[in-house]
Each structure stands twice: as structure tokens, then as C-alpha cells.
Amino acid sequence: MRTKEALAKILCLFCICLLFIVKSENEINTAYDTGNKDKTTFAEAKAVRYLLYDVNPGEGFNLRRDVYMRVANLVKFLNEDEPWVLVLPPWGRLYHWQRDVEQIKIPWKTFFDLDSLRQHIPVIEFEDYLKVRGEPVIDEVYYLQGFKGGWTHWEEKLNITECLDSRSGGFRQDDDGRWRHWFFGYEEVYAKKFACLSYMGHAGFIKPFLMHNTTGRSVYIPQAEEMLHDRYGHKGYWEARRSMVFAKHLRDIGDEFRAKHLTSTDQEDNTVLEDWTKMRRKHGEAKGGPYIAIHLRRRDYLWARKDELPSLKGAAKHVKKLLKKYDLLKVYVATDAPKEEYEEFKSYFKKAEIYRYEPTEEVFNKYKDGGIAIIDQWIAAHARYFTGSHVSTFSFRIQEEREILGFDPEMTFNRMCGDKDQDCEQPTKWTIIYD
Questions:
Q1: Exposed/middle/buried for 192, CB within 10 Å: 0-12, 13-18, 19+?
Q2: Which of the residues 182, 264, 345, 413 could staple to 258 if both were Cys, CB 3.0 to 4.6 A apart?
Q3: What's the order of all strands across the beta sheet hosting 383-387?
Q4: CATH topology of 49-236 equal to that of 247-411?
Q5: CATH for 247-411, among 3.40.50.720, 3.40.50.11350, 3.90.550.10, 3.30.420.40?
Q6: Residue 202 to residue 229: CA distance in whole angstroms
Q7: Where is the signal peptide (predicted)?
């Protein structure tokens, strides 16, 4: 009798293990599904490889989001032949993040919905990559740079060459032959191999090099901004962009502010966010909240682009015309202006209500400068009418968000002119493409 009971237990345990194996394989297949149709072909299994990247330290938050799209579509391209996972570079130490608090090792989940990113390509946080590897190691580093002497005509080419930067981008070899670097603030991380790669080309151009000239399980590409979009503004670009859904906790804060101060809700404004893979909005479908939103860039732009920006008084004059034109009384201001400049801007209005998002200490400590910037963009993206600052990536990202939500391009692609040029050229209308 005991023998039969023991046998039954063994069979039960075997069934459980079998179910676990099947479930695990299904989860792995789902994790690495890049959206391609099942072609029902079988080949020798290939080990998963990891692509890491970074951007020039001087580049800001919103340009980095643009570089993500380039690298994401490269990973999508790589996955057509072998499994690659994109390792998301932790955020920190950006020029515009000037609050007196350390902001490093910030994971992407603080700012973005990782499940949405994974509906486009397989991604993993850097900390999770270190856990998977079991040691703080990156196998190969290829530091992207231009070609010596510059170039006279553009052509796609790459070549491992001498490092043009005498400091080799801050990479140094220790006494044990390991390559050391800042590595996002993780001092224990090291690389086994380092080389400088002179590069001129689109992101997809590096695919053959990664597949046939690298052998490490992980490859790291600093200065990934050297790689251009394969097809800027086309279907692949917008798929990557649409997948970059803001984290729900940040959207919730922005939505609460809209409802409380701007009489704006998704139901009333027709801006309900859906699964990005199924969401296809027509231009003009989104109404937006009853307010004007502006991006009033100040600080470094005051000297870098002073003739292309309005004065505070000039910006107020322009906004008053918009309020009258659209019969509105509320204005939302996304700005990097110090408090005294913002107060001066407000002083030029007698009837209109002027709003700006000011985070509590608790919110800032949780979500840092990057999170506050996203809340700003989310609120601005839901306005009835938006006008931005000239060639600002902050304004670009808001315009893209409004395209995804389905606003009329005429209510989105606008900029404020300098005081001396009231008929300045307006932004190019980079409208959304689905097919």
C-alpha cells in the first residue's frame, strides 16, 4: 500500500514539474516576442545576447528618449535573426537635473511602463542584467566616435580605429587588465574588452558587426547618438515611440492636477489612453482640456537662442491672443524658469488663470527631476492648444504625445516667436504613421 502511495506521489510530482517547464518556456517565448508572426520554422537554439548603450553625458533627458528609439529598433532588427535583449541604461547626472540632490541609478520603471516597452522589444533593467550575469561584467565595449579628419561626403561606414579622445571616453584599464568606467554609478562593474569604433551610419548598419564581429554575451555601445534613425518619422519610429508609455504613477499625478485645476478629464477631453498596439486615433479626435499649454524654455536658451525666444512680456502677449482666439481662460506653463520669472509672467495677466505644476517634497524624492518633467509633459499634452519653444526636444516629445492621443496638428505643431520676428517659421508637422 505504501508502495502505491509513493508511486502516486512521484507521478504527481512529475506532472507538476512538466507543467512548470511548459509554463516557463511559454513565458520565455512571450518575453522575447517582438511582434513578428509565427513562421513555424525551427533551428538550432541560440543563446540570448544583451545590448547595452549610453548617450553622451551632455545630452538631456528628451534627446536620450530619442536615442532609445534608435537602439530599440536596432534590437528589433537583430531579433529577426537571433535573440537580443536591450539593457536599459539607468538615469542620472543630467545637465538639466540641477536640484541639490544625488540622482543616479534611477531605473526606467520610475519613468516608463516597462510592459509597454516589452510589447515592442525585449528589455531589461541594468540591475536585473547584473543579476542574470551573476557578476558585474560587460564582455565587450565599442566606443562610438567620428572619423579622424571629419568627412567630406556622407556614407555608411565603420572601422575599429585609434581613440580620437585622448581620455578614451573615460575608460581606463586597471592592473588586472579589466576596463573600468563610471558605468551608471556602479563602480564594481568592469568590461573585459574595449575598442573605439569610428562610425557613420544608421542604427541598423551596425547589425552585421554585432552579429559577426562580436562574440561576447553582452556588448556595450557608449555614445549611441552617433547612430541615426533608420527611417525617421516612419512606421518603425512611431512603433518605438508609441511603446514609450509614461509610468502610470506619473500619469495619475498629472491627471489629478488636470482635474483639480484645469477642468480636464480624459472622458471629457476624449483622450483616454488605450493599449498602444491597438490604439489608432484620427487627427482631431482628441478635444483636449479647456486650457492653453505652453512650453516656455528659459535658462540656457536665453543665451543660446535668445533671438528665437520671446521675452516674458512677449510670451504673455502671444498667449493672450490664443486665449481670445479659442475663448479660453486657463493657461498651463511648462517651464524651467526660476520662480521670480514665472511670477513676472503671471503678472501680465489680469483675468486668465495661470498654472504650473510644483511637486511636493515627497513626489520629488520619489520621482526626481525626470519624473517632474514627465508630469509637465503629460499635462501639456492634454491641452486644447499647445505651443512650444524653438527646436526644443521637450516640445518635440509633447507634440508626439499629442499625435498619439489624436489631436489636430494645427493645435499641436506651434512655437512662440521671438519679439523681433512675429512671423517666424513654425515646426514641421511630423504626423503619426501606423502602416
A1: middle
A2: 264
A3: 353-355, 330-335, 289-296, 383-387
A4: yes
A5: 3.40.50.11350
A6: 6
A7: 1-26
* Residue 111 DSSP code: T
Please tell me the predicted confidence (pLDDT) of residue 100.
59
| Per CATH, domain 49-236 is 3.90.660.10 | no
In the chain, the amino acid numbered 271 is T
Q: What span, in angstroms and rounded, lies between the C-alpha atoms of 2 and 122?
A: 49
pLDDT in tens, 319-362: 999 999 999 999 999 999 999 999 999 999 999 999 999 999 99
| pLDDT tens-place string over residues 141-150 | 999 999 998 8
Q: How far apart are the first and last CA of the chain?
A: 66
Q: How far apart are CA 376 and CA 370, in angstroms?
A: 10
Q: Are 93 and 103 in contact (CB under 8 A)?
A: yes
- What separation in angstroms does the CA of 101 have from each of 74, 98, 106, 364, 369? 34, 8, 13, 10, 10
Active site residues: 59
Number of other CB atoms surrounding residue 254 within 10 Å: 21
